[in-house]
Amino acid sequence: MTSIKDVARAAGVSTATVSRVLANKPYVSPEVRQRVLEAVERLGYRPNLVARGLRAQQTNTIGLLVSDIRNPYFTDVSRAVEDLAYEHGFTLFLGNTDENPQKETLYLQSMRDHNVAGLIFSPTRQASEHFTALNLTLPTVVIDRAVREGDVDMVLIDNVEAAYRLTQHLLEQGYTRLAGLFGEMSVTGRERQRGFEKALREHGLAPLQMRFLPPYIQTGYEATRALLQSQPRPDAILATNSLLLAGALKAIREAGLPLPEAIGLAGFDETTWTPLVEPPLTVIAQPTYEIGRMAMRMLLERLENPALPYRQVILKGQLILRRSTLRRTEG
Amino acid sequence: MTSIKDVARAAGVSTATVSRVLANKPYVSPEVRQRVLEAVERLGYRPNLVARGLRAQQTNTIGLLVSDIRNPYFTDVSRAVEDLAYEHGFTLFLGNTDENPQKETLYLQSMRDHNVAGLIFSPTRQASEHFTALNLTLPTVVIDRAVREGDVDMVLIDNVEAAYRLTQHLLEQGYTRLAGLFGEMSVTGRERQRGFEKALREHGLAPLQMRFLPPYIQTGYEATRALLQSQPRPDAILATNSLLLAGALKAIREAGLPLPEAIGLAGFDETTWTPLVEPPLTVIAQPTYEIGRMAMRMLLERLENPALPYRQVILKGQLILRRSTLRRTEG
DNA sequence: GCAACTTCTGTAATCGTTTACAGACATTAT
DNA sequence: ATAATGTCTGTAAACGATTACAGAAGTTGC
Q: How far apart are CA A117 and CA A135, in angstroms?
């Protein structure tokens, strides 16, 4: 590979001058600048970012750490993050934690070891409850899950409120025996549980069943199968992420129960398929792309200005009513 | 941050010795090794990977360059790649090209500038047709799209054959006025078109319509709407990726045409929703996770042994028959 | 007792950049 | 004429690791 030394030699100047030209620093004569640029062009020189990162003590990379990129929520968020990173000349390191605190720790270390400029991070429940213990010195924006302690920027939706609204809607439709499927290892699951219970309590009801599950279609499927066989059978199911929701739908279909008459189904996250299945599904749509962009924007701002006060941005989920829960009034 | 110098000082040895201990090199006395490890522990020392990367002239990172991570095909592939990378201590750089050759070029440069150890790469049509012009010196595994020229490892499915089988199936079901929706900017689209035409030709038929589209739901939707209004109207549609397929389904639903009687619909890529929509969709399922793992495995092998002969692995897609095309015999 | 070898450790160069510092020269102010 | 200032460029020291080389000390063989 050609290095800055080769360019310097070819242009008959020192490496310092080459560096100055490339960084667009002042105090370089037009003729020399011209000579250097020509040499760069001729040799096809490209600066080594590893060397630059070492000397400058900071890189143009940022880390994105999510639980599973296959969860449509994180797929969309990561795409938004990547877009903005690209626009600003940053490259993205990607890691999946699988809600596994140990894997999470390893990744956090790895990101630090690579000296990433900043981090966008969706912590496991354990990490979000003991956030300061992580000892993150990196500029970090937390997404999807609130952390209690610790100064850190966050982009979230109000999960309690969103789950409350969704549950409220089910109750208004006349469903009374509600079961909830929640993410097992994230605080998000807990918060949605709180909203669920709150709405029920206000109607003088209690949850019929609540299950805390790892976020896979299969687990949602199995849990729902079990629910449908239990007595008394729930007449509505709330699934708090798109994977559990898909599994629940599959189980209900297999059981041959007519939606929304015999059973109602509602969940979190708008995906390609929620409007296309039969019946279309009522969901809380999170503004995923907005969340990703906002997180990245906040990170960029903090990199610019580390003294900024910490900010917590709460975006609003949108309730999309569809046939899977509409047994009363509208078509 | 604490550096190797701090550790050396704390342990009363030279940096060379610390390095030797950490690299598990021979010729270090047990007592010294012990002292060093204690100092490492006590100071919480972690080697700086940027510095190591510079000195060693190679990093433990690999680049993954796909057209759009939101395409479920690439989501799954990337997850598989990441899993294996993680197991082997590699970190992943992620980039989306959006089938844009210019963005692609920038990313390829960026990956090289970061001195990634290797690359897993899904080239645009332009790039796959002039692969040698990219001048890739990195160990590279190409996925999803065959490249003609150039020595490079590849992991693919036989697209011509897969599209042929799918088309064949439609014809056997008695559909005769077939329209095809193909990806516009990838060779994959072209290959699937060839399989489509071949099957039709063998039945003495010609394609009714063929459209080449960017891979978005919206474009699939709009194209299908147009198709449904054209005369003569197609009686079956083949959509060669999951995004176009989703758009097509949406348009057919809106038009109120009964599937599979009035119109048949088949496509590529098994996703969460293809079995859940009404009616469930006939598709060619690509072994996405296998593709990702295989690609990463081949890359790791090449890193181990650069002299390996170049290999082209062709995996087989699986035809999954579902109601969206079954109007003849089965339920 | 001396050569030859093995074991252990440190010195210093190196990877490819950036940048503090200093020096050369030109211009302007006094 | 001298000082002060501004412009341009090069020398060399970093950044934090790895590693070639050399040298010290200990062991073995004759």
A: 16
